[in-house]
Design a protein that fits this description.
By secondary structure, this protein is α/β, with parallel strands linked by helices. About 35% of the residues lie in helices and about 25% in strands. The two termini are about 30 Å apart.
Length: about 240
């Protein structure tokens, strides 16, 4: 059994720019602790010996830039740069086409801007996929969850969802290769675009296990997230 990783990194990251402005560097190229966020994310996965190869899916215009960064930081071994797409799903699909894995191998998909993922969580995810065929990292909900109906004035609460039935999805999300390929193909055929890979597998009526995540493994999205990530990085 081999383990592969796909890092979709073709996003533009407009939420990181002030007012959603364009012309700013995508957040995966911003620096954290003096290194690009994407480089830190890749290093986390290279610490896991069982991972055979990491495929980074980026925009065509960014491929040379990423390859240069990888050489600069000595990360050419076990990493391949592939062309991504306009959506996360397209990037994953493109990477899957170039994945040499057999049907029974494992593929993990991880957000490029979750650089504080740790090796132990990655290994737990791999073990969960071996047992359940599909697994994601998730955090229990702490706040009370309200379901709402959107209105012109904002929103109206329609129900309260028990917290014990809620988890906040993180990554990596792991699957048997054949399962993820089948899920992506089915979504494409139906014109369905999911916000994560687990949602594609759920559409097939299959169970997805949950592995305990951590507060450190958050997604850098807003400008203030960089300061928090710097704090966690210094505690490491």
């Amino acid at each position: 059994m081999q383990v592969f990783v796909i890092i979709p990194a073709a996003g533009l990251g407009t939420r990181m720019a002030p007012g959603g402005a364009t012309g700013h560097a995508p957040k995966q190229f911003l620096e954290l602790g003096g290194k690009p966020i994407l480089v830190l994310t890749l290093r986390a996965f290279l610490q896991v010996d069982s991972i055979q190869q990491v495929l980074v899916a980026v925009r065509k215009s960014e491929m040379e830039r990423v390859e240069t960064q990888l050489r600069l930081h000595g990360l050419t071994a076990r990493i391949s740069v592939v062309e991504g797409g306009d959506t996360r799903q397209e990037s994953v699909r493109n990477a899957l086409k170039q994945l040499p894995g057999e049907d029974t191998d494992i593929v993990l998909v991880h957000d490029a801007v979750r650089p504080l993922i740790d090796a132990a969580t990655i290994e737990r995810t791999i073990a969960a996929v071996e047992q359940h065929q599909a697994a994601i990292v998730g955090l229990p909900a702490v706040d009370t969850i309200k379901q709402v109906e959107r209105t012109a004035d904002g929103a109206i609460i329609t129900s309260t969802i028990p917290r014990e039935r809620i988890v906040l999805a993180q990554t990596p999300q792991g699957f048997r290769c054949d399962l993820l390929r089948r899920a992506v193909a089915a979504a494409d055929a139906d014109g369905f675009v999911g916000t994560d890979e687990a949602s594609l597998v759920e559409r097939l009526g299959l169970e997805v296990a949950v592995v305990a995540g951590s507060q450190r493994n958050f997604k850098i999205t807003q400008p203030g997230d960089l300061a928090l990530a710097e704090f966690y990085l210094q505690q490491h």
